[in-house]
Amino acid sequence: MPLIKLDAIDSTNNFLKQLFKDSIVEDYTIVIANEQTNGKGQMGASWVSEKGKNLTMSILIKNIQLENQNIYDFNIAVALAVIKVLKNIQIHNVVIKWPNDIMADSKKVAGILIENILKADGSFTAIVGIGLNLNQTNFEDLPLASSLKNITGKTYEQEAIALLLKDSLKVTAVTLNECSDLLWQEYHENLFKKDYPCPFEDKMGNRFMGIIKKVTRDGKLELILEDDSAIHFEVKEIKMLH
């Protein structure tokens, strides 16, 4: 299992995607960068990280076959793989904030960006990008962010955490077809603010209260509004005011 360490790169996802395009790349190849000059988040948002302080990585997972399932099932499997690693290293109060953030003690410690390369037979290869705040302690401009070191006081090693994430992803990828219903149950058990009234803002700037009930199998957020109506939102149609 190759592990490629880079000092600086525009984006580990871009690097691994190009590598896969240009050459034969082994399954579960990992790319780690000390610095990303153009790190990407969901829907083109930027991911900013202090050089050398955190884990910015991408991992290649090849030939994923989903049997009568939605491709979003893979997204929730990845999120669960990440929180299982954090829980195993004694990070407490870890939850998943829809659509792609990992929270600990109600602050963001990680983000996930998955880019899929679809094949004619219905299978796909995934580039799974994970940004995890390890040892950065100053979040003056990001009051809703934190790191593992801020939570525990311990220092974490990039490569060791990357390998734990790889192993966890292998397990969830293998069990995806057999245990998708159980994975969805576990996902909802770990969904941030589920069943709690929360303020939201839509893309027009309108603010409203809603209760998160679930995420649908195609990745939409289902809210119950104040008039008891249920409504579904796509990624980036709303944001939680947190």
UniProtKB/TrEMBL annotation:
Domain BPL/LPL catalytic, residue spans: 1-177
Any matching Pfam family: BPL_LplA_LipB
Enzyme Commission numbers on file: 6.3.4.15
Keywords: Ligase
InterPro entries per record: aa-tRNA-synth_II/BPL/LPL, Biotin_CoA_COase_ligase, BPL_LPL_catalytic
GO molecular function: biotin--[biotin carboxyl-carrier protein] ligase activity
TM spans (from-to): none
NCBIfam families on file: birA_ligase
Protein name as catalogued: Biotin--[acetyl-CoA-carboxylase] ligase
Species of the source: Flavobacterium paronense
Lineage summary: Bacteria, Pseudomonadati, Bacteroidota, Flavobacteriia, Flavobacteriales
